[in-house]
Design goal:
By secondary structure, the chain is mainly α. It has three helices and two strands. It has a two-stranded antiparallel sheet. Helix 1 packs across helix 2. The longest helix has 24 residues.
């Protein structure tokens, strides 16, 4: 098992500005050791013949081309609005600013 000490965790917590109790430091040292061991086991399997991947299934871009289509005129866009002014939607003020 990887050697992650309580002092290592305390140092990391200090760098991250995370306050941890003594119990949390002890528990986290054990948990981090298990995480490091898991990463090591994956690193041992992933050799030069295994391609790096971020997803188990190859993904492709499914977005359509950005083509300008039919657009609404300002009058059409505002036709259903309860109130408008200067070709914009007019809404009640929510701040007390003048």
């Amino acid at each position: 098992m990887a050697e992650i000490t309580r002092d290592d965790v305390a140092h990391l917590a200090q760098l991250a500005r995370i306050e941890m109790s003594a119990d949390e430091l002890d528990r986290m040292a054990g948990e981090l050791a298990h995480i490091v061991d898991a990463v090591k086991s994956v690193s041992e399997v992933a050799g030069p013949d295994v391609p790096a991947t971020s997803h188990p299934i190859a993904l492709s871009n499914v977005f359509r081309e950005d083509v300008v289509g039919h657009v609404l005129t300002p009058a059409q866009a505002l036709s259903g609005a309860p109130d408008s002014e200067d070709h914009r939607f007019k809404v009640p003020a929510i701040l007390d600013e003048e």
